[in-house]
Amino acid sequence: MSQIVLNRRRWSAALIGGAVMAWAATAPVGQALASTWPERPVKVVVPAPAGSSLDVIVRLLGERLKERWGQPLVVENKAGAGGMLGMDAVAKAAPDGYTLGIGFNGPIAFAPFMYKKMAYQPARDLLPVVLTTSQPNVLAVSASVPAQTLPEFVAWAKQQAGKVSYGSVGNGSSSHLSMELLRGAAGFDAVHVPYNGSPPAAASLAAGDTQALMAVAPALLPLVQAGKVRFLAVTSAQRIGNLKELPTVAESGLANFEALAWNGLFAPAGTPAEVVQRINTDVNALLKDPAVMESFQKQGLIPGGGSVAQFRGYIEAESAKWGAIIRQAGISID
């Protein structure tokens, strides 16, 4: 064999070896990370207090994810600024798959339209991972209101010529925006009275200081049982399991009406796609577990699931829908 041929073979081998080394050096970090992730505990930031529905959701999933991952989920409650404090912490965390957050429509789909300045931008700084649960509000009225159905309430409200007031669990909340959506669709006037959370809003309704309220059912059930408050309709597209007798707003005459409070897992932008997909796959499996489904349904929660792309698309649709409502109502929080 000639020296020229040998040199050519050595040169080719060197080129191939160099190319392999270069690929290894520049290969996506995610490919290496996903094969070993997680190697240590995974932190989940909950932008709400301990004991809240978001906290319960994360802890329930965390118990089962520990079995799949061989690592615990560490819950960090970081409430404040309508959920934005916690989601900002997630947005600024290292994108290595070891910090997640459970976001909800407030700091994800509502806030960009209500605040002139935000410390993070959801679409830029956060990656949607998976929809965990959703929950409808119910339209509740004070026992002093004569209406027994949604159409009767709308007719009654129109007769009051703007003297109706409705409470909410906070300015710019799902409770507030769901009623604004209903008001616009049904065409009646009402004055908004925001409260700091469900307890004072519910107390106001029970006392007759406000006449209507959109809120999650569990917060109002004791008052319904005491005869101080009456449910008229639920804001989901279908009736919900624990309130099957309660009609939806849509079947009560306002076609296609749907308003859900939803939540899901998010990761910092830049988190490897392989890790995001691993989390999505594992959480989807748990959301189909009969025990998990039953636990959520008992709390009035609708199990979520779906692909990363589906969750991203859902957020985009929700942002467009509620952004229009926020602009129309002139809601601004600064």
Taking strands numbered 1, 2, ... along the chain, how are they ordered across the largest sheet?
2-1-3-10-4-11
Radius of gyration: 25 Å
- Total of DSSP H or I helical runs spanning 4+ residues: 13
CATH architecture of the largest domain: 3-Layer(aba) Sandwich
Mean pLDDT equals 90
CATH superfamily descriptor of the largest domain: Bordetella uptake gene, domain 1
The outline comes out as globular
Helix content: 40-55%
pLDDT < 50 stretches: 1-27
What structural class do you assign from the helix and strand content?
alpha/beta
Extended strand count: 11
Keywords:
334 residues; alpha/beta; D-Maltodextrin-Binding Protein, domain 2; 2 domains; six-stranded mixed beta sheet; five-stranded mixed beta sheet; 13 helices; 11 strands; 46% helix; 18% strand; disordered N terminus
Question: How would you portray this structure in words?
Answer:
There is one protein chain. The chain contains 13 helices and 11 strands. The protein has helices spanning 3-26, 29-36, 53-69, 84-91, 105-114, 122-125, 150-159, 174-186, 198-207, 221-225, 273-287, 290-298, 308-329; strands at residues 42-46, 73-77, 99-104, 126-136, 138-142, 165-168, 191-194, 212-215, 229-234, 260-268, 302-303. The protein is of the alpha/beta class and 334 residues long. The radius of gyration is 25 Å and the shape is globular. The strands form 2 sheets. The protein has a 6-stranded mixed β-sheet, sandwiched between helices. It has 2 domains: 40-134 and 261-329, D-Maltodextrin-Binding Protein, domain 2; 138-252, Periplasmic binding protein-like II (D-Maltodextrin-Binding Protein, domain 2, 3-Layer(aba) Sandwich).
